Every structure is written in structure tokens, then in C-alpha cells.
Amino acid sequence: MARVPLETLLARVERIRPLPGVARRVVALVEDDAASVDKIQAEILKDQVITARLLKLCNSAYYGFPRKIGAVSEAVVLLGFNAVRSLVLSLGLKEIIQAPLEGYSMAAGELWRHSLACALIARRIAQISGYADAERAYTAGLLHDIGKVALDQFVRAEFGEIVGRAGSGEKAFSQAEQEILGFDHCQVGKMLLEHWRLPAALVEAVSLHHRPSEAVLDPRLAALTHAADGLTLMAGFGLGADGLAYKIDPAALEKLGLDTEKIETLLGTVPDLVGGGLRAYED
Ligand SMILES: [Fe+2]
Ligand SMILES: [Fe+2]
């Protein structure tokens, strides 16, 4: 039974609470190379809630700046355009992915924790493996499972059948989604990100985060997103119905030059890295 008609799914994608306008506009500015400190500040100031949260974050222990940051423009100068884009996107995403996802057995806030952890780990992997755009890696990690938000109600309706067919592991789970619903959360994520007009290489990395070897636009970004997702689950952030036996593709690790020693060192830093990040974003 139960294939989800494309129109039903698209309607659902359109009903997902959109990313706040400020997040979309800051992303567009930075992506188009049209950014300046003044332009970014002007966009952020249009949203009082994001402005207040951004300043609070920049003044948190996590960033540890030696003096108080009182103006958005100061934050933009100190952090740089790309890091501010990541920050505003994170704040925007946090607002829209708090609800529990029953289809994936994720409690309220769990997808947020998984997403932020994956973003921070992806950024760290980028630094270790020499991937130049660490903030793009962060963004791919942040958004990789966004499709689950739109697919959840359909997964919930067919939960028994999907779990019964899935065996173990997230890849197997997404295959079962595909077989039973006709779509998996990777494809739905692709639809959402296209709907939000995010860049193609980012959309590719999200849509192939369980099949990174198929990427053509930016294979390292896809490998990185996949590896970050796997390490996030290994570290215990956001285990849902689909995350228990995640198998990281060895070819992805090889592409990134991640050997066992580097992975162990990285995993050792995760509690501080992710714990500190999550605390910084608490209200
Ligand atoms: Fe996933
Ligand atoms: Fe994930």
C-alpha cells in the first residue's frame, strides 16, 4: 500500500514552516558574493529575535571573545561572513525543527541536537581533511536530515512495515522508506532545499548523504556529510529508529583521508565540541 503521491508530498513540503526570511536572505547574500558588513547587518536587524539571539550567542562562553560584542556589525567582522551565515541558519533551523518526530522515534528537540552535532562534526572534519569551505560543510551537516520533518507523518503511518523491512541501519531505513512510501528522507530533503533555493552542491550533499559515492558536483562534500552523520550517531547524538547500526562507507573516509587514528582523536573531542555548541544555543 501507501505510496505517497508526489503532489501530496510537495504540498507537505510547502506547508513546512519556512526558514525565517532573515536566514534565507543572509544565505543568499553570502552565496551570491554580494555581501558586505552593512548589508548583512541590515538584514539581521530586520529580525529582532534573531538579532537578540545572535548577540547572546556571540557573547556566550562558547565563543569566548575577550570583550562584549554589542553590535551585529562587530559580530560579522569578528566571525566573518560565512560563519555568520552558519549561525543565522542554525538559529532559524532551531525554530522549525523542535517538534517530536514520531515516525523516526525522535523526541522533541532530538533532530535539532542531531543536526547541530552533525554540523559541528562536519566543520571539524573539513578542517582535518583540508576541505576548504568549512562553513559549507557545517551547513550540509546542519540540514542533512531536514527531509524527515516533511516525511515524518507518512513514516508514522507505515512505521511497522518500514521497520519490519528495514533491518538495521539508517541506509536500510531510507531504502525501506523508498520501497514503501516511494520517497526517502534524502529525496524529500532535496525538495525542501530546492524550495528554499539553496546552492546545488549543498542540495546534492544532503540528497546523497546515505549514498555519497554517487555525488558528482562535490563528492568530498557528500563524503564529508555522510561521515559526519555516522560519527554523530556513533557519538550518541540523535539515535532514532533509523540510526542504530549506521555503517560509514569506507570509500568516503578514504576520500577525506580519515584513518582510524584521526577518527578516534576526533571522537575524543566530540563531547566538548558538541556539548559546548548545544549549550550555547539553549534559550
Ligand atoms: Fe539521514
Ligand atoms: Fe542523520
Q: Could you characterize the architecture of this molecule?
A:
The longest helix has 22 residues, at 260-281. The termini are far apart. The chain has 283 residues and is mainly alpha-helical. It contains 16 helices and no strands. The protein has a domain at 6-17 and 99-281: Hypothetical protein af1432 (Orthogonal Bundle), CATH 1.10.3210. The protein binds fe (ii) ion (2 copies). Residues 114, 144-145, 229 line the site of one fe (ii) ion.
Instruction: Report the major sheet.
Output: none
Unreliable spans are: none
Distance between the termini: 43 Å
- Any idea of the CATH topology of the domain at 6-17 and 99-281? Hypothetical protein af1432
**How does the helix and strand content classify structurally?**
mainly alpha
**Rounded radius of gyration (Å):** 18 Å
**Heteromolecules bound:** fe (ii) ion
Number of strands: 0
Number of helices: 16
| CATH class value of the domain at 6-17 and 99-281 | Mainly Alpha
**What would CATH call the homologous superfamily of the domain at 6-17 and 99-281?**
Hypothetical protein af1432
Q: What's the SSE pattern? A: HHHHHHHHHHHHHHHH
